[in-house]
Design goal:
alpha+beta; Beta-Lactamase; globular
Length: 120
């Protein structure tokens, strides 16, 4: 795994879609591999919660016969969070502002997830 290459993908992600505020690559067991999170945020907590939520959403997707989970989207009053599968054992977490246009965020996140999957 190349931390430099993963960081480069996250930097490109921020450039590609206006409104993206933070991003992280998380292992499916909750470890932060690389992150560009705001100062003061607990990266370890973000990783653990993100992986747990994705796991639970995957179980729900299976229970509802929706197939294997690809993305999980959360909308809050101050912004949104997108968790995408990025390879077989990692996730991409993208945080965007409440005013971000979602279509470019989804497109850039998917592009970055594919790139991360190739690196890992």
């Amino acid at each position: 795994m190349s931390r430099e290459m993963l960081n480069f993908v996250l930097q490109q992600l921020g450039v590609g879609a206006a409104g993206i505020e933070a991003a992280a690559v998380i292992s499916t067991d909750g470890l932060i591999l690389v992150s560009q999170l705001a100062e003061g945020l607990d990266a370890d907590r973000v990783g653990a919660i993100g992986a747990a939520m994705y796991s639970l959403a995957g179980k729900m997707s299976g229970a509802l016969d929706c197939g294997e989970l690809d993305q999980l989207f959360l909308q809050g009053k101050s912004g949104c969070i997108l968790l995408c599968r990025a390879g077989s054992h990692s996730l991409l977490c993208v945080c965007a502002s409440a005013t971000a246009r979602l279509e470019p965020v989804f497109q850039e996140a998917q592009r970055a997830a594919v790139a991360i999957g190739k690196i890992l």
